[in-house]
Amino acid sequence: MAFFAMRLRAPRVTFPFDATPEEMALMQLHGAYWHDKAQAGIAIVVGPVMDPAGPFGLAVVEVEDEAGARALGLADPAVAADVGFAYEVMSMPSLILRRS
Question: Could you report the per-residue pLDDT of 65-95, keeping only the tens digit for each?
Fold first, then answer.
């Protein structure tokens, strides 16, 4: 298994501050999708990052390979809706995790 960081780029830098009701409904599906992946042990951490240059979503996942990470991104309802969301996938050769 391997670790990957996945950065979710929104359709515009002002998102989520000016999200439409339809986009907010899509974000509910997006959140449920990643909640399921966390419960399954695939997603290690998922959440929004409030970067001053523009907020983005971040997921750190453990999957077989990069293709598996890309498949997770394509299956995300936010990306599957084809309204401008897209993931960048980056390999993480190692992780240091705190004990729970």
Answer: 999 999 999 999 999 999 999 999 999 999 9
d(CA 1, CA 13): 33
CA torsion through residues 53, 54, 55, 56, sign: negative
Bridge partners of 59, per DSSP, are 6, 46
CA pair distance 57, 50, nearest whole angstrom? 9
Rounded-to-integer distance, Cα 27 and Cα 21, Å:
10
Domain map (residue ranges) of the chain: 12-52
Is the bond into 11 cis (omega within 30 degrees of 0)? no
